[in-house]
Design brief:
By secondary structure, the chain is an alpha+beta fold. It has 2 domains: 114 residues, no CATH class; 124 residues, no CATH class. The chain contains 7 helices and 7 strands. It starts with a strand and ends with a helix. This is Recombination activating protein 1. One of its GO terms (molecular function) is histone binding.
């Protein structure tokens, strides 16, 4: 059974009563979707069920609804830790159910793909989106990302983030704050949910933006009329 996990903030859910002050109340929802069920039949897997609309809210089952701010790392950790511990136990074991008089063994595979960048940073222990280390997939800084728009590989992992958090917490080399921050590459709190790396990273966004920027410049300069424009002319378009 393949299960997709999702978690996102729901924004302000406070009720406004009378003319008194509006008390801000934020909520976070952790939910799951059963994506696919397959049965091992001989040497191949036979698909029994596959979710037709995996992004629909109709098949996304809420598992935990908490009144908390998604930026509050301590509250999220405290509430979701038992849930994550149960998930880890499910990953390492099998569920046996009797169906039609026959014992069936179920194995669960979890995919943490339903997180936006803000939540990925929160649950993987990374600094917020204003950080010098802008990418959730690699160790690139803002400067490195702007200079290197083509080559990009996934180098961060949950286990590495945990190791870096221990270095951040214990400071074994007795370094200054800046040196320590450079060593751990933007990890500042304990990661507690393993997410699946997806293409939704700021590094890629910067690359896309730079490409579109070039296209817009060529459109402004009407390069289709003059494909052999000189460097000086192209610089004028950029200005």
């Amino acid at each position: 059974v393949v299960v997709k996990e999702s978690c996102d903030g729901m924004g302000d859910v406070s009720e406004k009563h009378g003319s008194g002050p509006a008390v801000p109340e934020k909520a976070v929802r952790f939910s799951f979707t059963v994506m696919k069920i397959t049965i091992a039949h001989g040497s191949e897997n036979v698909k029994v069920f596959e979710e037709v609309k995996p992004n629909s809210e109709l098949c996304c089952k809420p598992l935990c609804l908490m009144l908390a701010d998604e930026s509050d790392h301590e509250t999220l950790t405290a509430i979701l830790s038992p849930l994550i511990a149960e998930r880890e136990a499910m990953k390492a074991s099998h569920l046996v159910l009797e169906m039609g008089g026959i014992l069936r063994t179920f194995k669960f595979i979890f995919r943490g793909t339903g997180y936006d960048e803000k939540l990925v940073r929160e649950v993987e222990g990374l600094e917020a989106s204003g950080s010098l280390y802008i990418c959730t997939l690699c160790d690139a800084t803002r400067l490195e990302a702007s200079q290197n728009l083509v080559f990009h590989s996934i180098t961060r992992s949950h286990s590495e983030n945990l190791e870096r958090y221990e270095v951040w917490r214990s400071n074994p080399y007795h370094e200054s704050v800046e040196e320590l921050r450079d060593r751990v590459k933007g990890v500042s709190s304990k990661p507690f949910i393993e997410t699946v790396p997806s293409i939704d990273a700021l590094h890629c966004d910067i690359g896309n933006a730079a490409e579109f920027y070039k296209i817009f410049q060529l459109e402004i300069g009407e390069v289709y009329k003059n494909p052999n424009a000189s460097k000086e002319e192209r610089k004028r378009w950029q200005a």
